[in-house]
């Protein structure tokens, strides 16, 4: 796949408004709240991860943001307007999790159909379709019927459809569920390419490692409420987890490390090798850790800052019965 050129050529309403803004958004099904006072803020050009357990209300939220489901209460603005407005809708892209394809169409026909619905002209589509097929790794396969595509190819084709009309905001619902590891990396690159073009991406994914790598900020939802939202660094309370690997732990080294940060885990299972996970208050603490190891006489083999671990945070939050509300 190539880095996409998908940014808005001419923004319909160039604006400083947020990509998504909701306040106390609610949806009741048969009197039961499934989205229950959801307040979100997603700036333009940001990749936003929307996380939560099954049934948390993620898809319902996305449907409301797309104007496909009517909210029961609260406010929402998408690209500064309402998603029911065709001028706003034309600037949105969407890859649903359960895509139903017209299997008798070829990939190109499918994209032409969606492009025409999005208001693109025939000559624009002639240039644009091969471009997006190339971007999603389907270059040269567009003339084949969708009925003969693999699951991964169909998901790539759906992604091509989502970015075809150069949207300013793209909703991707589990965009890599059918993809192999190479495909996942490629989709990550596409998302990064979208961000570089100033396109906002709203990403629903259960693959937390994927979200961790690509998202600027995330929100955790449970039972239709946001438990927490912020940048990865903010969510971790600003700490920098580091892993250090040494040949041995001389007496006193662990105490010194505990004065520099919080020792979270030690692994002394392997002879001739010790690993310590240390949470530092800031990155500036790293040289002092290296000095402490050196002064203790141990040999330092690795000192690796780690990105915050979303999975640990997710499980902590989701499993806490009365988790705090953002
Ligand atoms: N059309 C509907 N009618 C009645 N209940 C619905 C409807 N759509 C969703 N729900 C209910 O709303 C709740 C939230 O569903 P939703 O699909 O939004 O969750 P989700 O977070 O996307 O879940 P998953 O991760 O499993 O896809 C669920 O309990 C679901 O049964």
From TrEMBL:
SUPFAM superfamilies in alphabetical order: P-loop containing nucleoside triphosphate hydrolases
List the Pfam families hit by this protein, alphabetically: ABC_tran
From the Swiss-Prot or TrEMBL record, what is one GO molecular function term?
ATP binding
Query: Is Nucleotide-binding a UniProt keyword of this protein?
Result: yes
Task: Name the domain of life.
Answer: Bacteria
UniProt keyword annotation of Ligase present: no
Residues in ABC transporter domain copies: 20-248
Q: Which UniProt keywords apply?
A: ATP-binding, Nucleotide-binding, Transport
Matches recorded under Gene3D superfamilies: P-loop containing nucleotide triphosphate hydrolases
Q: Which family does it belong to?
A: Belongs to the ABC transporter superfamily.
Q: What is this protein called?
A: ABC transporter ATP-binding protein
Organism for this UniProt entry: Deinococcus hohokamensis
């Amino acid at each position: 796949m190539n880095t996409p050129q998908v940014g808005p050529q001419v923004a319909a309403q160039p604006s400083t408004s947020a990509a998504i803004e909701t306040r106390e958004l609610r949806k009741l099904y048969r009197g039961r709240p499934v989205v229950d006072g959801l307040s979100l803020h997603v700036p333009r050009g940001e990749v936003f991860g929307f996380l939560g357990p099954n049934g948390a209300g993620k898809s319902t939220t996305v449907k409301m943001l797309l104007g496909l489901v009517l909210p029961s209460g609260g406010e929402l603005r998408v690209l500064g307007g309402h998603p029911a407005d065709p001028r706003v809708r034309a600037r949105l892209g969407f890859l649903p999790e359960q895509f139903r394809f017209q299997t008798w169409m070829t990939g190109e026909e499918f994209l032409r159909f969606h492009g025409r619905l999005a208001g693109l002209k025939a000559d624009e589509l002639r240039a644009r379709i091969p471009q997006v097929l190339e971007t999603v790794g389907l270059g040269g396969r567009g003339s084949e019927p969708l009925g003969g595509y693999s699951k991964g190819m169909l998901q790539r084709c759906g992604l091509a459809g989502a970015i075809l009309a150069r949207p300013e905001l793209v909703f991707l619902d589990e965009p890599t569920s059918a993809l192999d590891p190479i495909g996942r990396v490629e989709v990550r690159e596409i998302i990064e390419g979208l961000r570089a073009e100033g396109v906002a991406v709203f990403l629903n994914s259960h693959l937390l490692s994927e979200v961790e790598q690509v998202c600027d900020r995330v929100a955790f939802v449970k039972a239709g409420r946001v438990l927490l939202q912020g940048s990865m660094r903010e969510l971790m309370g600003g700490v920098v987890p580091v892993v250090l690997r040494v040949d041995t732990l001389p007496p006193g080294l662990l105490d010194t490390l505990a004065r520099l940060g919080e020792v979270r885990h030690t692994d002394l299972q392997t002879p001739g090798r010790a690993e310590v996970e240390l949470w530092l208050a800031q990155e500036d603490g790293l040289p002092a850790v290296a000095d402490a190891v050196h002064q203790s006489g141990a040999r330092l083999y690795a000192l690796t800052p780690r990105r915050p671990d979303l999975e640990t945070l997710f499980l902590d939050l989701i499993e806490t019965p009365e988790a705090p509300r953002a």
